[in-house]
Amino acid sequence: MDAASPPHALILAAGRGTRMKSDLAKVLHPVLGLPMVGHAAAACRAAGMAVRLVVHHQEDAVRAAMADAGVTFTRQPDPRGTGDAVRAALADLPATGTVVVLPGDAPLLRADTLRRLLAEHDGQLVTCLSAVLDDAARYGRIVRDGDRVSIVEAAELSDAQLASLREINTGVYAFDLAFLHRVVPGLLPHPPKGEIYLTDVLGLASELGRARVIVHDGDVDEVMGVNDRLALSLAARAMAWRVKAAHAEAGVSFEDIDSTVVEVGVQLGRDVTVGAGCVLRRGAVVGEGVRIGPHCLLDAGVLLHPGVVVRAFSHLDRCEVLPGAVVGPYARLRPGARVGEDCHVGNFCEVKNAVLEPGAKVNHLSYIGDARVGARTNIGAGTITCNYDGHGKHHTDIGADAFIGSNTALVAPVSVGDGAIVGAGSTIVGDVPADALALGRGSQVVKPGLAPRIHARNAERKRQATRGDGASS
Questions:
Q1: What would be the CATH architecture of the domain defined by 8-223?
Q2: Is 445 exposed, middle or buried (0-12, 13-18, 19+ CB in 10 A)?
Q3: Which residues pair with 390 in a beta bridge?
Q4: Would you say the CATH fold of 229-438 matches that of 8-223?
Q5: What pTM was estimated for this model as a whole?
Q6: d(CA 240, CA 137)
Q7: Which of 239, 329, 321 is nearest to 284 (CA)?
């Protein structure tokens, strides 16, 4: 390996992936919140390589999905096999040094495996990573003949060879770039499809005595490509265990590790407890000592500060919860919600684009949207900020130490001053000054003894209706 420059990685991501039976390009299918090709790129970058993707099918979508992944791109104009993909990228690669070529459908590949490949490649023209399988199925086989090695596609092997050869090609290679520039332009297409095989390069290097095949010494699932939906599910399961095991080793407790989903890119602090059936999406950040109850969903952009409690069946999305706050059960925090220190957001409450200042409480059956709720203010059950007039959103501002009675409708734009009280059942359409009492409801009317007469009248109407239905039938 050229010590003067870092190695490069070339990820082959141009194919359609017809066996996925999907309108989505194969490499874009997600594994725990990240496209398959994103996992491959992350492993290469972790191994210290500059990463380039060869793209064609759904090129724009692949470029968009990988826009923030620190990679560059080469377009393969007319895909005709792996050799053609590398040929398309030669002009974008250095003239010397080392390049690792790998498929974009290998999400479980580890950076340590790539580092080993690079270390073993030293002084070789080609180094291929192989694996030994009990059932090698239709994979291309490594054929060893004395000091020479080659890769033969399964379609070109006899039945006896298919049965006896168990060492397969993983599609992961390290190449000397000067050699690659010299030989790839001269590769010939293979019938019947006219595809150009990158595997031919190993045979050419072997003839020069500078080819090596190293057998993968870890779990073979790591180097297996994903070709269909079943393999995708199995890859997600394997990745899930890898991710959760790393969190557990770092001090996170899972009440039921099997039923919990933690996507890649989730940050969990020490002493976090995650209840059964939770789903934590990529980009969620959870501070130390947070307790998350069963069956909660944390979407991307959630920030939970240390000591927060999220009770069962709550859904949080692009929101922030500060230390000491309690959320749920059955609460929903939507984008823009900021729940302050020691606040309570209780059962069946929804908060959207609103700030709850320290100690505020919204405990039951309420909607707070486009609003500020001041420190220590209590929001009674069933309170609604009426923020939408059919055309635009409007703001509600509630001061500190206010008391909003149950079943209040605050028709925005409106403000309630510090220390004010709004009586239960009120509809507030105008500003309430600080320390004022506001009542926005009609006067109660009581008529003694009228209830029995109303019940009798209604019962008679029901009898008449029933009789009429019977007569008509």
A1: Alpha-Beta Complex (3.90)
A2: exposed
A3: none
A4: no
A5: 0.89
A6: 26
A7: 321
CB 363 within 8 A of CB 380: no
Cα separation of 330 and 296, whole Å?
9
| CA 428 to the chain's CA centroid | 42
Residue 338, phi then psi, degrees to nearest 5: -135, 110
Residue 301 CB-density burial (10 A; 0-12 exposed, 13-18 middle, 19+ buried): middle
Burial class from Cβ neighbours inside 10 Å (0-12, 13-18, 19+) for residue 431 reads middle
- Domain positions in the chain are 8-223, 229-438
Question: Count of CB atoms within 10 A of residue 261's CB?
Answer: 17
Residue 469's pLDDT is 64
Separation of CA 19 from chain center: 23
Q: Which residue has the tokens 């010590």?
A: 3
Q: How many CB atoms lie within 10 A of CB 346?
A: 20
The pLDDT score that the predictor gives to residue 1 is 42
Residue 424 phi/psi, 5-degree rounding, is: -55, 145
Length of the chain: 473
Distance CA 325, CA 305 (A): 9
Residues known to be catalytic: 364
Q: Tokens in use for 449?
A: 């003894």
Instruction: Identify the CATH homologous superfamily for domain 229-438.
Output: Hexapeptide repeat proteins (2.160.10.10)
| Residues 290, 309: Cα–Cα separation, whole Å | 6
Contacts of 425-428 spanning 24+ positions with Cβ under 8 A: none
Residues of the chain with confidence (pLDDT) below 70: 1-4, 469-473
**What would the pLDDT profile of 382-410 be if each residue is shown by its tens digit?**
999 999 999 999 999 999 999 999 999 99
